[in-house]
Amino acid sequence: MAIPKFERLTSRAVPLPTQNIDTDQIIPARFLKATERQGFGDNLFCDWRSEPDFPLNRFSGRILVAGHNFGCGSSREHAAWALVDYGFQVVVSSFFADIFRGNALNCGLLPVQVSERFLAEMFDAIDADPASEFIVDLEAQTIMILPTGASERFEIDAYKKKCLLGGLDDVDYLVSLMPEIEQYESNI
Amino acid sequence: MPKTLIDKIWDAHTVRTEEGGRTVLYIDRQYIHEVTSPVAFAGLASRGFRVARPAQVTATADHNIPTENQHLPISEAESRTQVETLERNCAAHGIELFGIGHPRQGIVHIIGPEQGLTLPGMTVICGDSHTSTHGALGAVAFGVGTSEVEMALASQCIIQSKPLSMRISVNGPLAPGVEAKDVILYIISRISASGGTGHFIEFAGNTIRSMSMEGRLTLCNMAIECGARGGIVAPDEVTFKYLGRTDPQWLELFSDPDAVFDKEYSFDAADIPPMITWGTNPGTGIAIDGHVPANADPKALNYMGFSAGQKLLGTPVDYVFVGSCTNGRIEDLRLFAELVRGRRKAPGVVAWIVPGSKLVERQAREEGLEQILNEAGFELRQPGCSACLAMNADKVPAGKLCVSTSNRNFEGRQGPGSRTLLSGVTVAAAAALNGKITDPRDVFKQKS
Boundaries of CATH 3.40.1060.10 in chain B? Predict the structure, then answer.
């Protein structure tokens, strides 16, 4: 159940300049009835996608660029699964809700938090040319707008960075710690 | 060094600290339900692992189950499959399950506290963001994703960054007709739907101290709606009385007097009116007799069918929902029954009154609340999450307006196209009786 390795991505992006996008919009509750993690991409943003103008219908790319406070609300990891299943590898926003950020990292989707200014520059670049590409470099922790050369550093927890670069997930690691966990339990 | 209550509990559950500062955090109790657990069990099976500590895991079926005819098989195939998968997984791993029909079944965040499974000083997780509810008992409790459900099943630990600390103090007596739900809707309206992100909130002050355990559960339930990981109230006599016992260790569970919080807010209870939300996130609360803000988000206004600057009073209401992990406890049903006693539900309103658990349902019956409800034209349904997230048949139709005691008013939350106005039980009762958004202080004058 390893997660996909992530090192560096060059891709176009899909702009979604709405703030406070909650996980009920990313994947509505009525689609949470599966017992497997695949297949949620078909219903990603289902209730918004019926609008022909909705960005997913007009742009393509492996990077989603979204407004402030992305992924708020329900803890459903299905939201991150749906984004991955659709084909996104990176989500960029100026602010992420906590649980979503954790879920994304745990299923190999890289959340990149940038400044409001840089986010606006990304939207501008896509506005100017929908074919604009961006480079996300996890090792260097940088994101670059190719057409302008503008670049910004992003933060990521050292442990999760190691997991993404190596395609490692936490379950095997935690189970390897069982002797230490049992030691902790015996001291309670 | 002085510590906050959260520091004390977090540090006592730290197994080790990873490079970069993440904590391998020991979990005392994990709750699971049918929607966010199947993939975790499948992951466990694919790795050949067993559940490490089945006695520390408690399961219930709540999210997608019908709230009537629970003695019959679930007719919706996918929901049935999820519930059956939960039953199979619990049986295979020796996990206690309060399934449909069990006398102690109910919404996960109602049954944990009411059965004494969540205790002060514990760490508690569940694959559900409203796990923050359990913090009312003095536990560090928070929602997690399915990957973390799997981690905790496999090892009884998860790996998390320690949250920042925030203290929100509320002082003074609450005005008549104002309840815990109004307090939390007011707080979120002041600090915004993202104002608590990255933080864990300790609720303090004499207003909180004076609240019943049910009120504190409502308060902590919605800590997540300002983005916080969770909310907590230091245990006290109210807690010990609710649990029917005490433990010397629980008396140590308070923030040291000189502990420093990363952020502090203070509110005066006298400023808090009966609240209602106008928009599509829980931070859009206004006073029941207030106006939609002049600078309101046009997208939200368009969805809700409101205009900037308008009053909500007098707006016709189609549905009223009383229930959920926010307001589905016995105290909520008692309050609703008291308010509608001797009155009649407005003819055009569809009302769903859904107890949070089988124990609440039974108690409501034994106390005569069901009869009061029936006489006023309301019916008591069977326990489940119901119209809070509309995974079952309890869906508000597109375009219809629902005054709801649940926790989220996101677009489509109660069904595609549904429009949700969040409120406490008192505002919901006034709407149900009048068929329109009504100031409860006008309706229940003689009772306040």
Answer: 164-271
Give the mean model confidence (pLDDT) for residues B134-144.
Answer: 98
Give the H or E element holding residue B231. Answer: strand B230-232
Per DSSP, the residues of B165-182 read EEEEEEESPPPTT--HHH
ipTM, 2 decimals?
Answer: 0.95
Question: How confident is the prediction along chain A (188 residues), in pLDDT tens digits per residue?
Answer: 578 899 999 999 999 999 999 999 999 999 999 999 899 999 999 999 999 999 999 999 999 999 999 999 999 999 999 999 999 999 999 999 999 999 999 999 999 999 999 999 999 999 999 999 999 999 999 999 999 999 999 999 999 999 999 999 899 999 999 999 999 999 98
Q: What pLDDT does B446 receive?
A: 55
Distance from CA of B398 to the nearest CA of A (A): 12
Q: Which fold, B5-160?
A: Aconitase; domain 3 (3.30.499)
**Whether B79 and A22 lie within 8 Å, measured CB to CB:** no
Q: According to the model, what pLDDT value does residue A3 have? A: 87
- Whether B382 shows a pLDDT value over 80: the answer reads yes
Q: Which of B34, B27, B207, B205 is nearest to B124 (CA)?
A: B27
Cβ-Cβ contacts under 8 Å, A94 against chain B: none
According to CATH, the superfamily of the domain at B164-271 is Aconitase, Domain 2 (3.40.1060.10)
How far apart CA B149 and CA A171 sit, in angstroms, is 10
* Portion 3-32 of A in contact with B at CB < 8 A: 18-20, 22, 24-25, 28-30, 32
Within 8 A of A177 by CB-CB distance, chain B residues are 15-16, 24, 155, 157
Asked if A70 reaches chain B (Cβ–Cβ under 8 Å), the answer is no
Burial annotation B181-193 (CB, 10 A radius, 16+ → b, else e): bbbbbbbbbbbbb
- Write down the residue that tokens 């939200």 correspond to: B300
Which residue is listed with tokens 């442990």? A159
Measured at the CA of B93, the angle between CA B90 and CA B99, to 5 degrees, comes to 15
Q: Which amino acid is at B95?
A: I
Q: Determine the residue among A43, A75, A169 to mutate to test chain B binding: the one whose Cβ has the most chain B Cβ atoms within 10 Å.
A: A75
Average pLDDT over residues B244-270: 97
- Average pLDDT of the residues of chain B: 97
Taking only the tens place, the pLDDT of each residue in B62-85 is 999 999 999 999 999 999 999 999
Q: CA–CA separation, B374 vs B117, rounded Å?
A: 33
Residues of A within 8 A of B21 (CB-CB) are 157
Q: pLDDT value at position B20?
A: 87
In which residue ranges of chain B is CATH 3.30.499.10 found?
Answer: 5-160, 276-447
Quote the CA–CA distance of B225 and B227 in Å, as a whole number.
5
- The CATH number of the structural domain formed by B276-447 is 3.30.499.10
Q: Which residues of A touch B15 (CB under 8 A)?
A: 177, 180-181, 184
